[in-house]
Amino acid sequence: EDPSLERHFKGHRDAVTSVDFSRSKKQLASGSMDSCLMIWSMKPQMRAYRFMGHKDAVLCVHFSPSGHLVASGSRDKTVRLWIPSVKGESTVFKAHTGTVRSVNFSSDGQSLVTASDDKTIKVWTVHRQKFLFSLNQHINWVRCARFSPDGRLIVSSSDDKTVKLWDKTSRECIHSFCEHGGFVNHVDFHPSGNCIAAGGTDSTVKLWDVRMNRLLQHYQGNSVVNSLSFHPSGNYLITASSDSTLKILDLLEGRLLYTLHGHQGPATCVAFSRDGDLFVSGGSDEQVMVWKTNFDADYGDVVKPQKCGSSVDGTHGTGSEMDCGIHHKKTKTQDSGRTHEQQEQETSLANTLEHIMGQLDVLTQTVSILEQRLTLTEDKLKECLENQQKIIQNKTN
User: Fold this and answer.
1) Res 44: pLDDT
2) Which portions of the sequence form the region Disordered (predicted)?
3) What is the pTM of this model?
4) Beta-ladder partners of 175
Protein backbone atom coordinates (compact mmCIF):
# COMPACT_ATOMS: atom_id res chain seq x y z
CA GLU A 1 0.00 0.00 0.00
CA ASP A 2 1.27 3.49 -0.80
CA PRO A 3 1.80 6.18 1.82
CA SER A 4 -1.35 8.28 2.15
CA LEU A 5 -2.06 11.81 3.32
CA GLU A 6 -3.78 11.62 6.67
CA ARG A 7 -4.09 15.20 7.94
CA HIS A 8 -3.46 18.67 6.72
CA PHE A 9 -2.65 21.53 9.10
CA LYS A 10 -3.01 25.15 8.09
CA GLY A 11 -2.10 27.92 10.50
CA HIS A 12 1.36 29.25 9.72
CA ARG A 13 1.57 32.57 7.92
CA ASP A 14 4.85 31.91 6.14
CA ALA A 15 7.07 28.99 5.03
CA VAL A 16 7.29 26.06 7.45
CA THR A 17 10.94 25.37 8.30
CA SER A 18 10.89 22.40 10.67
CA VAL A 19 8.61 19.66 12.05
CA ASP A 20 8.78 17.02 14.78
CA PHE A 21 6.49 14.50 16.51
CA SER A 22 6.39 13.92 20.26
CA ARG A 23 7.15 10.32 21.19
CA SER A 24 3.50 9.58 21.98
CA LYS A 25 2.41 11.09 18.62
CA LYS A 26 -0.19 13.11 20.56
CA GLN A 27 1.55 16.33 19.57
CA LEU A 28 3.31 17.74 16.57
CA ALA A 29 5.56 20.81 16.61
CA SER A 30 6.32 23.07 13.66
CA GLY A 31 8.49 26.16 13.24
CA SER A 32 8.07 28.81 10.60
CA MET A 33 9.48 31.95 9.00
CA ASP A 34 6.47 33.70 10.65
CA SER A 35 8.48 33.66 13.96
CA CYS A 36 5.99 31.26 15.56
CA LEU A 37 6.23 27.80 16.96
CA MET A 38 2.99 25.86 16.64
CA ILE A 39 1.95 22.78 18.60
CA TRP A 40 -0.77 20.75 16.92
CA SER A 41 -2.59 18.24 19.07
CA MET A 42 -3.28 15.09 17.06
CA LYS A 43 -6.02 13.69 19.28
CA PRO A 44 -8.64 13.73 20.71
CA GLN A 45 -9.52 17.17 19.29
CA MET A 46 -7.42 18.91 16.69
CA ARG A 47 -6.32 21.88 18.75
CA ALA A 48 -3.46 24.13 17.71
CA TYR A 49 -1.42 26.41 19.95
CA ARG A 50 0.56 29.28 18.51
CA PHE A 51 3.59 30.10 20.66
CA MET A 52 5.01 33.59 20.31
CA GLY A 53 8.36 34.58 21.79
CA HIS A 54 10.99 34.51 19.10
CA LYS A 55 11.67 37.89 17.50
CA ASP A 56 12.48 36.42 14.07
CA ALA A 57 12.06 33.27 11.95
CA VAL A 58 12.00 29.94 13.84
CA LEU A 59 14.29 27.60 11.88
CA CYS A 60 14.34 24.41 13.96
CA VAL A 61 12.20 22.53 16.49
CA HIS A 62 12.76 19.29 18.42
CA PHE A 63 10.78 17.45 21.13
CA SER A 64 12.67 16.14 24.17
CA PRO A 65 12.57 12.32 24.45
CA SER A 66 9.94 12.56 27.22
CA GLY A 67 7.82 14.89 25.09
CA HIS A 68 7.50 17.40 27.96
CA LEU A 69 9.76 20.03 26.37
CA VAL A 70 10.22 21.47 22.89
CA ALA A 71 13.42 23.24 21.86
CA SER A 72 13.39 25.86 19.12
CA GLY A 73 16.14 27.88 17.47
CA SER A 74 15.75 31.13 15.60
CA ARG A 75 17.23 33.81 13.42
CA ASP A 76 17.07 35.99 16.56
CA LYS A 77 20.18 34.00 17.76
CA THR A 78 18.34 32.51 20.74
CA VAL A 79 17.17 29.05 21.74
CA ARG A 80 13.90 28.61 23.62
CA LEU A 81 12.73 25.64 25.67
CA TRP A 82 8.94 25.46 25.78
CA ILE A 83 6.50 23.49 27.91
CA PRO A 84 4.06 22.43 25.17
CA SER A 85 0.88 23.13 27.15
CA VAL A 86 -1.89 25.73 26.98
CA LYS A 87 0.22 28.35 28.77
CA GLY A 88 3.17 27.75 26.46
CA GLU A 89 5.76 29.01 28.92
CA SER A 90 9.38 29.09 27.80
CA THR A 91 12.87 29.92 28.96
CA VAL A 92 15.16 31.67 26.53
CA PHE A 93 18.93 31.84 26.24
CA LYS A 94 21.25 33.66 23.90
CA ALA A 95 22.88 30.65 22.30
CA HIS A 96 24.99 31.99 19.44
CA THR A 97 26.21 35.17 17.74
CA GLY A 98 24.42 34.15 14.53
CA THR A 99 21.17 32.51 13.35
CA VAL A 100 20.48 29.17 15.11
CA ARG A 101 19.80 26.57 12.39
CA SER A 102 19.53 23.36 14.38
CA VAL A 103 18.50 22.10 17.85
CA ASN A 104 18.67 18.45 18.94
CA PHE A 105 18.17 16.68 22.29
CA SER A 106 20.37 13.71 23.23
CA SER A 107 18.44 10.44 23.63
CA ASP A 108 18.67 10.64 27.45
CA GLY A 109 17.17 14.15 27.32
CA GLN A 110 20.07 15.62 29.36
CA SER A 111 21.94 17.52 26.64
CA LEU A 112 21.10 19.82 23.76
CA VAL A 113 23.27 20.43 20.69
CA THR A 114 22.79 23.63 18.66
CA ALA A 115 24.33 24.75 15.35
CA SER A 116 24.60 28.23 13.91
CA ASP A 117 25.65 30.65 11.18
CA ASP A 118 28.43 31.72 13.59
CA LYS A 119 30.16 28.51 12.32
CA THR A 120 30.02 26.82 15.73
CA ILE A 121 28.26 23.85 17.28
CA LYS A 122 27.48 24.18 21.00
CA VAL A 123 26.48 21.65 23.63
CA TRP A 124 24.31 22.64 26.62
CA THR A 125 22.79 20.97 29.67
CA VAL A 126 19.00 20.95 29.42
CA HIS A 127 18.33 21.32 33.14
CA ARG A 128 20.09 24.64 33.72
CA GLN A 129 20.58 25.60 30.08
CA LYS A 130 24.25 25.76 31.02
CA PHE A 131 26.77 26.06 28.18
CA LEU A 132 29.21 23.12 28.20
CA PHE A 133 31.48 23.46 25.17
CA SER A 134 31.87 24.60 21.58
CA LEU A 135 33.06 22.73 18.46
CA ASN A 136 34.71 25.14 16.03
CA GLN A 137 36.21 23.62 12.90
CA HIS A 138 33.63 24.47 10.26
CA ILE A 139 34.55 27.46 8.09
CA ASN A 140 31.00 28.38 7.02
CA TRP A 141 27.43 28.27 8.37
CA VAL A 142 26.55 25.06 10.21
CA ARG A 143 23.14 23.85 9.02
CA CYS A 144 22.56 20.79 11.17
CA ALA A 145 23.97 18.92 14.20
CA ARG A 146 22.75 15.64 15.70
CA PHE A 147 23.69 13.36 18.58
CA SER A 148 24.29 9.66 17.86
CA PRO A 149 21.69 7.33 19.45
CA ASP A 150 24.14 6.46 22.26
CA GLY A 151 25.08 10.14 22.76
CA ARG A 152 28.82 9.54 22.30
CA LEU A 153 29.17 11.18 18.87
CA ILE A 154 27.90 14.35 17.22
CA VAL A 155 27.56 14.76 13.46
CA SER A 156 27.33 18.17 11.78
CA SER A 157 26.84 19.46 8.24
CA SER A 158 27.80 22.83 6.83
CA ASP A 159 27.90 25.25 3.91
CA ASP A 160 31.66 24.54 3.83
CA LYS A 161 30.54 21.36 1.94
CA THR A 162 31.72 19.02 4.73
CA VAL A 163 30.08 16.64 7.15
CA LYS A 164 32.06 16.34 10.39
CA LEU A 165 32.00 13.62 13.01
CA TRP A 166 32.88 14.64 16.60
CA ASP A 167 33.65 12.72 19.77
CA LYS A 168 31.55 14.27 22.56
CA THR A 169 33.97 13.28 25.34
CA SER A 170 37.26 14.38 23.78
CA ARG A 171 35.53 17.20 21.82
CA GLU A 172 37.73 16.32 18.84
CA CYS A 173 36.72 16.12 15.19
CA ILE A 174 37.27 12.42 14.37
CA HIS A 175 36.59 12.64 10.65
CA SER A 176 35.57 15.03 7.88
CA PHE A 177 33.55 13.73 4.92
CA CYS A 178 34.31 16.06 2.01
CA GLU A 179 32.57 14.30 -0.89
CA HIS A 180 29.62 16.70 -1.21
CA GLY A 181 29.53 19.00 -4.20
CA GLY A 182 27.51 21.71 -2.45
CA PHE A 183 26.17 23.02 0.86
CA VAL A 184 25.12 20.14 3.15
CA ASN A 185 21.66 21.03 4.45
CA HIS A 186 20.86 18.06 6.65
CA VAL A 187 22.54 15.10 8.31
CA ASP A 188 21.36 12.40 10.72
CA PHE A 189 22.35 9.11 12.33
CA HIS A 190 20.93 5.75 11.31
CA PRO A 191 19.02 4.26 14.32
CA SER A 192 21.85 1.71 14.76
CA GLY A 193 24.33 4.57 15.21
CA ASN A 194 26.66 2.88 12.70
CA CYS A 195 26.03 5.09 9.70
CA ILE A 196 24.93 8.61 8.78
CA ALA A 197 22.98 10.10 5.88
CA ALA A 198 23.49 13.60 4.49
CA GLY A 199 21.79 15.61 1.74
CA GLY A 200 22.24 19.05 0.26
CA THR A 201 22.37 21.44 -2.66
CA ASP A 202 24.19 18.98 -4.95
CA SER A 203 20.88 16.99 -5.05
CA THR A 204 22.49 13.85 -3.61
CA VAL A 205 21.90 11.74 -0.52
CA LYS A 206 25.00 9.95 0.73
CA LEU A 207 25.23 7.27 3.42
CA TRP A 208 28.53 6.66 5.23
CA ASP A 209 29.65 3.98 7.65
CA VAL A 210 31.02 5.92 10.65
CA ARG A 211 33.15 3.03 11.91
CA MET A 212 35.14 2.68 8.67
CA ASN A 213 34.40 6.20 7.30
CA ARG A 214 33.42 4.62 3.99
CA LEU A 215 30.71 5.67 1.57
CA LEU A 216 27.98 3.02 1.60
CA GLN A 217 25.29 4.39 -0.70
CA HIS A 218 24.85 7.31 -3.05
CA TYR A 219 21.50 8.49 -4.41
CA GLN A 220 21.52 11.07 -7.19
CA GLY A 221 18.36 13.19 -7.27
CA ASN A 222 17.48 16.15 -9.47
CA SER A 223 16.74 18.78 -6.84
CA VAL A 224 18.17 20.27 -3.63
CA VAL A 225 17.65 18.01 -0.61
CA ASN A 226 16.46 20.16 2.31
CA SER A 227 15.80 17.55 4.97
CA LEU A 228 15.89 13.81 5.64
CA SER A 229 14.71 11.32 8.26
CA PHE A 230 15.39 7.63 8.94
CA HIS A 231 12.53 5.21 9.57
CA PRO A 232 13.00 3.73 13.10
CA SER A 233 13.56 0.27 11.54
CA GLY A 234 16.58 1.77 9.78
CA ASN A 235 15.44 0.24 6.49
CA TYR A 236 14.01 3.39 4.88
CA LEU A 237 14.97 7.02 4.49
CA ILE A 238 12.70 9.88 3.51
CA THR A 239 13.84 13.17 1.94
CA ALA A 240 12.20 16.56 1.33
CA SER A 241 13.32 18.38 -1.82
CA SER A 242 13.04 21.79 -3.45
CA ASP A 243 11.16 20.26 -6.42
CA SER A 244 8.23 19.93 -3.94
CA THR A 245 8.56 16.13 -3.63
CA LEU A 246 9.09 13.74 -0.74
CA LYS A 247 11.07 10.65 -1.71
CA ILE A 248 11.17 7.38 0.18
CA LEU A 249 14.34 5.34 -0.33
CA ASP A 250 14.52 1.61 0.40
CA LEU A 251 17.99 1.20 1.93
CA LEU A 252 17.94 -2.61 1.80
CA GLU A 253 17.29 -2.64 -1.93
CA GLY A 254 19.19 0.59 -2.52
CA ARG A 255 16.47 2.14 -4.64
CA LEU A 256 13.81 4.84 -4.74
CA LEU A 257 10.52 3.41 -3.48
CA TYR A 258 8.04 6.30 -3.69
CA THR A 259 7.88 9.91 -4.83
CA LEU A 260 5.11 11.88 -3.13
CA HIS A 261 3.69 15.13 -4.46
CA GLY A 262 1.87 17.05 -1.74
CA HIS A 263 3.39 20.48 -1.40
CA GLN A 264 3.08 23.46 -3.71
CA GLY A 265 6.66 24.71 -3.88
CA PRO A 266 9.73 23.42 -2.03
CA ALA A 267 9.29 20.71 0.63
CA THR A 268 11.46 22.08 3.44
CA CYS A 269 11.32 19.53 6.26
CA VAL A 270 10.29 15.95 7.00
CA ALA A 271 10.30 13.63 10.04
CA PHE A 272 9.12 10.12 10.89
CA SER A 273 7.21 9.55 14.12
CA ARG A 274 9.16 7.61 16.80
CA ASP A 275 7.33 4.36 15.91
CA GLY A 276 7.47 4.93 12.15
CA ASP A 277 3.70 4.67 11.53
CA LEU A 278 3.46 8.30 10.42
CA PHE A 279 5.67 10.96 8.91
CA VAL A 280 5.16 14.71 8.74
CA SER A 281 6.31 17.20 6.13
CA GLY A 282 6.36 20.99 5.89
CA GLY A 283 6.81 23.31 2.95
CA SER A 284 7.26 26.87 1.81
CA ASP A 285 3.51 26.71 0.97
CA GLU A 286 2.84 27.20 4.76
CA GLN A 287 1.34 23.69 4.99
CA VAL A 288 2.06 20.93 7.50
CA MET A 289 1.04 17.48 6.22
CA VAL A 290 0.80 14.22 8.16
CA TRP A 291 1.13 11.01 6.16
CA LYS A 292 0.39 7.39 7.04
CA THR A 293 3.45 5.28 6.28
CA ASN A 294 1.65 2.09 5.07
CA PHE A 295 4.68 0.74 3.20
CA ASP A 296 6.30 -1.04 6.09
CA ALA A 297 3.69 -3.14 7.86
CA ASP A 298 5.92 -6.20 8.22
CA TYR A 299 9.42 -4.84 8.81
CA GLY A 300 9.53 -6.70 12.16
CA ASP A 301 9.68 -10.06 10.39
CA VAL A 302 12.93 -9.55 8.53
CA VAL A 303 15.62 -11.22 10.60
CA LYS A 304 18.78 -11.76 8.59
CA PRO A 305 21.26 -8.86 8.64
CA GLN A 306 21.23 -7.07 5.32
CA LYS A 307 24.18 -5.91 3.30
CA CYS A 308 24.09 -2.16 2.91
CA GLY A 309 26.31 -1.80 -0.08
CA SER A 310 24.41 -0.84 -3.18
CA SER A 311 24.91 2.33 -5.11
CA VAL A 312 21.94 3.63 -6.95
CA ASP A 313 23.32 5.67 -9.78
CA GLY A 314 24.92 2.60 -11.32
CA THR A 315 28.43 3.29 -10.02
CA HIS A 316 29.20 0.20 -7.99
CA GLY A 317 32.59 1.55 -6.99
CA THR A 318 31.17 3.02 -3.79
CA GLY A 319 29.40 -0.16 -2.74
CA SER A 320 30.85 -1.86 0.31
CA GLU A 321 29.82 -5.29 1.53
CA MET A 322 29.34 -4.15 5.09
CA ASP A 323 26.44 -4.74 7.38
CA CYS A 324 25.72 -1.18 8.44
CA GLY A 325 23.53 -2.27 11.32
CA ILE A 326 20.22 -2.21 9.52
CA HIS A 327 18.26 -3.13 12.45
CA HIS A 328 15.30 -5.42 12.97
CA LYS A 329 12.71 -5.85 15.65
CA LYS A 330 12.85 -9.03 17.69
CA THR A 331 10.46 -11.65 16.46
CA LYS A 332 8.11 -13.33 18.91
CA THR A 333 10.14 -16.57 19.14
CA GLN A 334 13.10 -14.80 20.72
CA ASP A 335 10.98 -13.67 23.63
CA SER A 336 9.46 -17.02 24.52
CA GLY A 337 11.88 -17.46 27.43
CA ARG A 338 10.28 -14.65 29.39
CA THR A 339 6.83 -14.75 30.86
CA HIS A 340 4.13 -12.38 29.73
CA GLU A 341 3.88 -11.10 33.31
CA GLN A 342 7.57 -10.17 33.47
CA GLN A 343 7.27 -8.26 30.22
CA GLU A 344 4.23 -6.36 31.50
CA GLN A 345 6.02 -5.45 34.73
CA GLU A 346 9.04 -4.23 32.80
CA THR A 347 6.88 -2.14 30.48
CA SER A 348 4.96 -0.56 33.33
CA LEU A 349 8.23 0.19 35.19
CA ALA A 350 9.70 1.76 32.05
CA ASN A 351 6.55 3.86 31.59
CA THR A 352 6.63 5.02 35.22
CA LEU A 353 10.30 5.98 34.92
CA GLU A 354 9.66 7.86 31.69
CA HIS A 355 6.78 9.70 33.36
CA ILE A 356 9.02 10.66 36.32
CA MET A 357 11.72 11.91 33.92
CA GLY A 358 9.10 13.96 32.09
CA GLN A 359 7.83 15.49 35.34
CA LEU A 360 11.45 16.34 36.28
CA ASP A 361 11.88 18.10 32.93
CA VAL A 362 8.79 20.19 33.63
CA LEU A 363 9.86 20.96 37.22
CA THR A 364 13.31 22.06 36.10
CA GLN A 365 11.82 24.16 33.37
CA THR A 366 9.35 25.74 35.80
CA VAL A 367 12.21 26.54 38.21
CA SER A 368 14.13 28.13 35.31
CA ILE A 369 11.08 30.22 34.41
CA LEU A 370 10.70 31.31 38.05
CA GLU A 371 14.41 32.19 38.19
CA GLN A 372 14.03 34.31 35.07
CA ARG A 373 11.01 36.07 36.57
CA LEU A 374 12.87 36.70 39.84
CA THR A 375 15.74 38.27 37.92
CA LEU A 376 13.25 40.49 36.06
CA THR A 377 11.58 41.48 39.33
CA GLU A 378 14.96 42.24 40.93
CA ASP A 379 15.91 44.40 37.93
CA LYS A 380 12.62 46.29 38.13
CA LEU A 381 13.05 46.78 41.89
CA LYS A 382 16.58 48.12 41.36
CA GLU A 383 15.21 50.52 38.73
CA CYS A 384 12.47 51.73 41.10
CA LEU A 385 14.96 52.31 43.92
CA GLU A 386 17.31 54.20 41.57
CA ASN A 387 14.41 56.36 40.37
CA GLN A 388 13.40 57.03 43.97
CA GLN A 389 16.97 58.09 44.79
CA LYS A 390 16.94 60.47 41.81
CA ILE A 391 13.61 62.00 42.89
CA ILE A 392 14.91 62.52 46.45
CA GLN A 393 18.14 64.07 45.12
CA ASN A 394 16.18 66.41 42.82
CA LYS A 395 13.99 67.52 45.71
CA THR A 396 16.98 68.23 47.97
CA ASN A 397 18.67 70.17 45.17
Assistant:
1) 63
2) 309-345
3) 0.79
4) 165
Q: How far apart are CA 271 and CA 41, in angstroms?
A: 16
Distance CA 118, CA 138 (A): 10
Contact criterion met (CB below 8 Å) for 159 and 150: no
Question: What is the per-residue pLDDT for 355?
Answer: 75
Can you give the length of the chain in residues?
397
Rounded CA-CA distance 304/326 in Å is 10
Name which of 15, 11, 25 is nearest 279 in CA terms.
25
Dump pLDDT digits (tens) for 50-79: 999 999 999 999 999 988 999 999 999 999
Determine the pLDDT at residue 280.
97
335-to-236, 275, 338, 342 alpha-carbon distances in Å: 26, 20, 6, 11
Q: Give the pLDDT score at 309.
A: 41
Handedness of CA 295, 297, 298, 300 (dihedral sign): positive
Specify the pLDDT at position 346.
78
pLDDT at site 46: 67
- pLDDT tens sequence across 284-316: 999 999 999 987 554 443 333 333 444 444 333
CB crowding 48-62: b at 16 or more within 10 Å, else e: ebebebbeebbbbbb
- Identify the segments of the chain with pLDDT beneath 70: 44-46, 296-339
> Which amino acid is present at 333?
T
How much is the pLDDT for 230?
A: 98
Bridge partners for 145 per DSSP: 156
- In angstroms, the CA 101 to CA 143 distance is 5
Neighbours of 390 (CB within 10 A): 10
